[in-house]
Amino acid sequence: MSTTAAGAAASSFMAVIHTIKFYLSEHPAIVGFRWSNTQCWGSTWLFLFNSIAIYILLSLFLHLLLSLLLPRGTTVPLGPLPALHSLLMSLISATIFAGLLLSSVAEIRETSWFWRRSKTPFQWLLCFPLGTRPSGRVFFWSYVFYLSRFLHMFRTTLSVLRRRKLAFFQVFNHSISAFMSFLWLEFSQSFQVLAILFTTLVDSLVYGYRVWTAIGLRSACFPFVVNCKMVLLGCNLVCHVGVLLLHFFNGGCNGMGAWVFNSFLNGVVLLLFLNFYIRMYIQGKKKKSCAAANNNNNELSDTSKLKLN
Question: How many structural domains does the chain have?
Answer without folding.
Answer: 1
